[in-house]
Design a protein that fits this description.
Strand content of chain A: under 5%
Radius of gyration of chain B: 54 Å
Radius of gyration of chain A: 28 Å
Largest interface: A-B, 73 and 70 residues
Number of strands of chain B: 23
Order of helices and strands of chain A: HHHHHHHHHH
Helix content of chain B: 10-25%
Largest sheet of chain A: none
Oligomer: heterodimer
Structural class of chain B: alpha+beta
Amino acid sequence: MALALCAVSIAAYLMIDVEPRPRGGTMYGYILGTIGALLIVWLSLFGIRKRVITNGVYSLKAWLSAHVYLGASLLVIGTLHAGFHFGWNVHTLAYGLMVLVIVSGMFGATAYTVLPRELSANRGETTQKQWLETIRSLDAQLRDAAQPLDRAEADIVRLSTEKTDIGGSLINRLTGQYGSCSTRRAVEELARMRRARPQNAIATPSAAVDQVDALLKRKQETLAQARRQIRIKTFLEIWLYVHVPVTFALLAALTAHILSVFFYW
Amino acid sequence: MTFAIRTITRSATGGDIVHRPQLFDADQLTIGRGADCEVRLPDLAVNLRHAMLKQTGPGTVLVESLAAEPFEVAGKFITRAELKLSDTPKLIFGSHVLALSASDEDDSVLVDVTRMESAPEAASAANEGKIFSLGSPIFGKRPVAWTLAVVALLACLVWPIASFLSQDRTIHRAQTISADQQWSTGPLSKSHAFLGKNCQACHVKAFVSVRDDTCLSCHRSTANPEAARTTTANERNWDGPEKVTLVREHAAHDRLLRAMPPPKDFIGQIKVVFQRQFDHNSERCASCHLEHLADTQPKGAVAGTPALPRAIPVLRNTEDCASCHAKLRRSLGSTALRDTPDWTHHPEFRPLIARTPIGQSQPIFDRISLVQQPTDYTGLIFSHKEHLSTVGGVARMAAGLRFAGGALNCADCHRPNKGGKGFEPVKMERDCASCHSLAFAPGGPGGAPRLLPHGHPDQVVATLQNFYGGGGGMGGGGVSGRQPPGFLAQLGRLISYHPESGAATGKIRALFTPKGLCAECHTVVAPADTATLDYKIKPIHLTDRYLPRGDFNHDIPEHKHDAAGKPTCDNCHKAVDSEVANEVLLPRVSECASCHGKTKAKIETAASGDCVECHSFHAPGMAPPKGDGDKDHPAVAMPDAVTADKTVAAAGLVGRRTF
């Protein structure tokens, strides 16, 4: 249906010869504009529709499919409505916002076709709760194991147990790079400390330090796996943070676009 | 010296559990994480051996760090403190609080150890949502969505509308920023650029399409000087360019609407319904003259197209001429115009002819088809045939006058006007007098002969009375064979015919007789009372333009001369056969069609058969300016009423001159 809509739009666009150039203010332009505006309103109603789950032909699944394809076709309709002509005005603002919404939606659609597989591959049989439990238990073990450690070494352990931010910032989540992760720093610090001081000079028994080191490294592995999960989930969610707010802005700009045309008729 | 250490832990229900005290009989205690410490605090923030607690006297203790690591007392981090037990001081090591007090029973020191509530762990299950889904690191969707929507509405809708409502529209405003400019769909043409910041100059009312009155407030062409002043003032008020194209409506608005047939096709009818519904009708100025498109080249623009931005608004024809004029009589019964569906059905030319006898003060004009071979009342006695003939007296005289020889040709009398489009009016003194001399005696200024005043019979009488009555030159009208032929020679002849009329009266009467000089070209009205010399000449009407609703340019090379460079006048104007001046020497429309409407394949000089070759919309009597359409339109308009042809006003329109 969406493909047919695009095909008809493009064919009509090519067939209708508008002087001096194609634009919104022609009969065909108004038709496309009306279709586009109705589509935008209908597509934004998905936010309400998705909160109600039903079956059958008009199921949420069918609705989502239409949302994706008709949304993509809007890119064609909107561009033809504009006649490939843009400027610094409220009309192009509405177009720009529309493109932003559609592109973010396309990103989302792609993410939802590709990423869930990766998500379950990374997860294996583990649940999010289990990851957190593992980390909690590793923290407890670290605290116990570090009891015999002297102050400097204990502080390193505290760095990991107290300062580790599992999710991290948006950039951390998107890149999967946690360069300043406290656990990683703890591992590095401990290694450096052990290199710097000869074995016999360390006040605490090396067995305790070895144990702490092993625990820290296990925590690091667990964190890395959990963070891969977080990264994938971030990609699954991030586009909505553009898609939804910009849709609202688009509805406002669209209102201004339509009203302004009739206001200065 | 005794220390009693009580560990207090919190129960699941929130109550405190006080464990049995451990008693130490020693001078001092060590506080730390190490297994060897008396007060053991399993806290990584505490040193293995952190501090020493020592009783220094009755009710006083000393706390001192064993390394440089401080501890907290009363909000301060210190390494040494002497404390009174009566103050029940609290020492804080990491997450543990040591409350010191003196025992009520003996002199021992009580140390209550409690662990503070620590912040929930980062990896706690309660944080699962926060950690694994996005939300905490960026703003929530909902507040951002509403903020963006409100900002967009305020900036793009509320602000411009508010500025629209608050602006004073009667005066020109030199604003720097107009809120409503963001609504502009594209730049204005150069001619209207000065209105760029002033949307309301044209968009006067909200939700009302741009009206013709708005355009005409600057562009109205009017003969009314008061209205013209208003137009100029309006334009100046908006700071417009000084030169403005003045136009009149093609026809009165109601007639224009009636003349426009409803579209035949279904889509066209739907279009009209929408146009009416949305108040965007297609007969407005703005329907054809499209603004805000100055940055677009016409489709298929070729080299030489004027540079952008465009100089004037884009012109888009909503209707072609034929859509109204094909069946104009059906929709406008009262029209004087003939239906013209296309060039091949163009009606025969109908020159504007004076129907009333000469001399009537209010001549009545009518348009009479060339098919009827109309005659015009010129009042002149003139034969084109005689003057253009290559043999005979005229030709000989012309040859004699011009030495090199040859008969007269058209250009000898009809001289192109400025621009060459039409011709200067024929003037007796310039175009006729070299042969039809008005000289009557020698002795004029500068040695030239004396001339009779042309066009004023009473002055002619006075001049001759003065000359002969005064005796000057009596009999001096000596006929000299070398004089140019004409009046001087004739006068001598006349005098010889009337030997007894030595007085001026005889000469004057001779002048106005049917054989006299004046009567060669004019109809003389003899005086009612034959005793007087009150001679009159019947008035002359000469028409500059017989076809006021069409344009013709004599200056176009194909119109002017043929391939060999020979003038083509007689192709269209059959003057060589015309013996009387009343004949209308216009070509038939078929003459035009011999080139116009043909193809180059058929004829070398083929040209377009479009209506706009000869008629423009706003000034049907003028062809539209040629070229890119960016040139100024001439400030010429058609008459207000379509039926004006039959009125006196039409006389001015055709440039009819009466003498």
